[in-house]
Design brief:
Blueprint (H helix, E strand, L loop, with lengths): L3 E7 L3 H10 L6 E4 L16 E2 L8 H20 L4 E2 L3 E3 L4 H10 L7 E4 L2 E4 L3 E3 L1 H8 L4 E3 L7 E4 L2 E4 L3 E8 L15 E13 L6 E3 L3 E2 L3 E3 L4 E7 L9 H10 L12 H18 L6 E13 L5 E6 L1 H7 L16 E9 L5 H18 L10 H11 L1
Parallel strand pairs: 1-2, 1-12, 2-9, 5-14, 12-20
Antiparallel strand pairs: 3-8, 4-8, 5-7, 6-7, 10-11, 11-12, 13-17, 13-18, 14-15, 15-17, 16-17, 19-20
């Protein structure tokens, strides 16, 4: 392939597909690449894909999630009404301590709610069809799927992928597999999770969340049963980033092949999800329809990373006093030319990604600022302070 592109997006999960959607309003020279045979196939395919408020006292992360939730629910409803069910969510405290904590948050609620049964109903709560949303977001851009990018190198005015694909601007939305980001400060850990879809004779009229989430049911005419999504488990495996990358490359969300995320763990997680779901709502005549496993990308401070990637070598070379703990302004840090990232969206990918993708595209094309707390700069500054 010798064609040149203005924009190449590597990673076709919810973040990459969201970037593709917003970029397509400005450019028709876009290539979306993914190592999987379909878009929305990795961690995004294994996501519960629930959109629900973050509860708590005011802080910057809560503000971020609240703004993203408002943006994304409205965005999905306006553009993909058939792929979102905005039927609300009932949030049920896990225990008395959890209930007391919830009640302490009431003065700080960002969304209307009312008591319902043992829980609290939020009208904004929603659930989306994860893979269909990704397909719809990326439908108007050129794709190169089932393709592994193993080398990324700057060549004059272009970035060169695997030595033969040229892109003026590269946007990395690669989740937990960060081998292409050759920067030690870029600290991401995989949070492995599983979701299951089940057939059940039980009709579920709303989304529910307690120790897991249960989706509004859809009726399957052929099976004559309801389909319900249950998700998702969380595992931080005690292994190196390199091992995690091997797992991420090896795992197939429908046919498990990872050497660390074992079949035994998969079976245990299925049982755990069913037990937790039945603690919320009794599901009758359950039959597992499918299970999906993926590694969500989590940052050390829970905030996502958006924007240009800092070139640590050139920055320290220019400002050696950083090694002594000195500070400099963000705009003085040296970034890699035309290399951007969205990462670290964790378990809130379907809430955060459209919001962040819009911010990044507006930053690239219209020079609009990105708020400081989600820039990649903070990771570099902490790394320098800790290691030098």
């Amino acid at each position: 392939m010798s064609k040149e592109y203005d924009f190449i997006i590597i990673g076709a999960g919810i973040a990459g597909c969201s970037v593709a959607h917003f970029l397509s309003k400005y450019s028709d020279s876009i290539l979306l690449i993914d190592k999987n045979p379909e878009v929305g196939f990795g961690a995004s395919g294994a996501a519960g894909a629930f959109l629900s408020p973050l509860l708590g006292k005011p802080n910057k992360f809560k503000d971020l999630v609240t703004n993203a939730l408002k943006f994304s629910v409205s965005f999905y409803k306006e553009n993909f009404p058939n792929e979102i069910n905005n039927c609300g969510v009932v949030r049920i405290p896990k225990n008395e301590e959890d209930r007391e904590k919830f009640e302490s948050y009431i003065p700080y609620m960002d969304f209307p709610f009312k008591e319902e049964g043992d829980g609290y109903f939020f009208e904004i709560g929603s659930h989306v069809n994860s893979q269909k949303i990704c397909e719809q977001l990326a439908k108007d851009v050129e794709k190169l799927l089932d393709f592994e990018v193993y080398r990324l190198k700057k060549d004059e005015d272009f970035w060169l992928l695997n030595g033969n694909i040229k892109g003026k601007n590269i946007i990395l939305t690669i989740g937990a597999d960060i081998e292409l980001i050759e920067e030690e400060y870029f600290n991401i850990r995989a949070v492995w999770g599983q979701k299951i879809d089940v057939f059940t004779s039980t009709k579920v009229l709303k989304n529910y969340h307690k120790a897991c989430s249960i989706s509004f049911s859809k009726y399957d005419e052929e099976k004559k049963k309801n389909i319900v999504s249950i998700g998702a488990t969380h595992h931080r495996l005690e292994c190196s980033v390199k091992d995690c990358n091997l797992c991420i490359k090896g795992v197939n969300i429908n046919k498990l092949t990872s050497h660390n995320y074992s079949l035994e763990r998969c079976e245990n997680d299925t049982k755990e999800l069913l037990d937790k779901a039945n603690d919320i709502l009794k599901l009758e005549d359950v039959e597992v329809r499918s299970l999906k496993v993926g590694a969500r990308a989590s940052s050390v401070d829970y905030f996502p990373m958006v924007g240009k990637i800092i070139d640590s070598e050139k920055t320290i070379e220019k400002y050696p006093h950083l090694k002594n703990g000195s500070h400099i302004k963000n705009n003085m840090l040296i970034t890699k030319d035309n290399l951007y990232v969205i990462n670290g969206v964790g378990g809130r990918g379907f809430v955060l990604s459209p919001y962040l993708a819009n911010l990044l595209v507006e930053n690239i094309l219209n020079q609009k600022d990105i708020q400081e707390e989600i820039l990649t700069h903070r990771l570099f500054k902490r790394w320098v302070k800790r290691n030098h």
